[in-house]
Automatic annotation (TrEMBL), chain A:
Pfam families: BPD_transp_1. It is a multi-pass membrane protein. The chain crosses the membrane at residues 12-31, 74-93, 105-126, 138-155, 181-203, 240-259. Residues 70-259 form the ABC transmembrane type-1 domain. PANTHER family: ABC TRANSPORTER PERMEASE PROTEIN MG189-RELATED (PTHR43744:SF12), ABC TRANSPORTER PERMEASE PROTEIN MG189-RELATED-RELATED (PTHR43744). It is found in: Cell membrane. SUPFAM superfamilies: MetI-like. It comes from the Bacteria. Keywords: Cell membrane, Membrane, Transmembrane, Transmembrane helix, Transport. Belongs to the binding-protein-dependent transport system permease family. This is Carbohydrate ABC transporter permease.
Automatic annotation (TrEMBL), chain B:
Belongs to the binding-protein-dependent transport system permease family. Pfam families: BPD_transp_1. Its main location: membrane. CDD domains: TM_PBP2. Residues 12-24 have a biased composition (Basic and acidic residues). InterPro entries: ABC_transporter_permease, MetI-like, MetI-like_sf. Signal peptide: none annotated. It is found in: Cell membrane. Residues 1-31 are annotated as: Disordered. It is a multi-pass membrane protein. Keywords: Cell membrane, Membrane, Transmembrane, Transmembrane helix, Transport. This is Sugar ABC transporter permease. It comes from Streptomyces koelreuteriae. PANTHER family: ABC TRANSPORTER PERMEASE PROTEIN, DIACETYLCHITOBIOSE UPTAKE SYSTEM PERMEASE PROTEIN NGCF.
Amino acid sequence: MTRRPAEGLPRALWLCLISVFAGLPVLWMVLTSLQPMEELLGTSARLVPASVSLDAYREVITRFPFWEWFGNSFLVAAAVVAGNLVFDTLAAYGLSRIRFRGRQVVLTLILATLMIPTQVILVPLYLMMRDLGWIDTYWALIIPFLASPAGIFLLRQHFVTLPMQLDEAAAMDGAGRLRTLWSVLLPSSWAALGTVAVLKFMWTWGEFAWPSLVTNNELMRTLPVGLARFQNQFAPRWDLLMAGSVMAAVPVVLGFVLLQRLFVRGLTGGAVKE
Amino acid sequence: MHTATELSPKLTSDRAGGHPDRPHGPGRRRRRPTGALAGWLSVAPALLVILGFTFYPMVQSMLLSTDRWNMLGPKQFVGAENYATILGPGTFRESLLNTLVFTLLTLVGTYVLALATAMAANRELASARIVRTITVLPAVIPMVVAGLIWKWLYEPDHGLINTLIGLAGVDGARWLFDNDLALPAVALVSVWKDFGIYALILLGGLQRIPAELYEAATIDRAGPWRQFRSITLPMLRPAAAAVFLLLVFNSFKVFDQVWVMTEGGPGTSTLTVVTFIYTKLLTDVGVASAASVVLFVILLLITVIRLRLTSREES
């Protein structure tokens, strides 16, 4: 491809500019977390820190139940991902490979539920948790999200593209349904499963409104809720807030960097060559 | 597959459903009856969770919206009163208007940035991959973290934004504390966070446009603007429609960054629909539920439009 230089320059300029816009705030978070408060509140903000220290990180970990928050976030996200992988896969399998009376009704119902976001059921869902005695327990954070219409939909879309001959061949060999699902369908579905897992993990990890509603006990908070509460309790200690933010972002950013290809393919519908 | 044969009777849901093995008729159809039981067993766990924790609460939401209740005393049926209250002049109306303005700002901002970025990254530049990584990075960061970063950037006295503006010799603003600036300032966080994702979706659309179209247009001496208008925009329509509706849909649910950065203030200038629901949730259950139902109806309308548009694009 021949590129005309006159066309290439504004293009490159724009890409630089947009990268700065996207990247600078993240860089700023990291830089702030490494500087002492006195320096941050100096006469003017500086991009290059005069001194670098990990004091803010140390303080976050010692002054707050940081590891409890981190552990809660991790446990909840892991449990929700695991639940979705099992429940959504089973449902997607049933809805794509088994013919049974009522299948269409179930499918329609699940598609209809796809339109109901958590935000519009906050009130009654909270009441349910209260009546069940699940406030301040992991149950409230995990159980309602163990299965999701979006996950089922995504996996079903994928299963439908796999040829029925696979199942038939497996059946000829005497494999039962679960066996067929496990050793024939799942191995060729890792991309779809991975997408569901990553999205679910990211979403659960970052969730804010729901966990701050159903947790009152400081030790039951998830990381985002803890961080947000902590900023209200103290005169803004930006060094600590940014250190906490970095630590809250690391697990998901790491996951994203590792699974980037999958992500890009999922979003562009495979059109972009890596 | 010998092991599979041996294992299968124990593992199949057919067996669990009590269907006897039929040693004399090992045909597919017989070994794997079109069992309603297997079907229902496979969907049951997910269905129970979804019915119990999404569908049932949705119905409850509608029922509660006709009650007056502060979560402590007895419920009192008031009919459509809650709807009349919130749809009349007052904070809910303001929150609805704010949400609309927020949606409009996010829509325009994100769209322009995403399209420009997608078009710039469309060529096989060596740097395109790096740019893609950087621009999608904010989307991965939790919204609360994004809100905190920007709250610090907007900080009037020591924040980076006012410092940079100060370098140019201009006085900065009190972004999040100014009635007129707070909402656009919060909208910018949404633009920042998600434009990379939308750029990727648009990039996917761009790469589906056959290069021959541009070649033919160049032979016909169509300039870049003409090519953009006559080829790029029309061919991009399916991806663009998806982006448009996703943006509107998500903007209507905005909450996290508002709550972290301004809690709806100053005054009611950044109060959004979900923020309104949140403030009423524990004290005025009926009003919060009515607001939820109104939000649901709006989201439903958006979904219907989305389905209409996508099915038209496909046909």
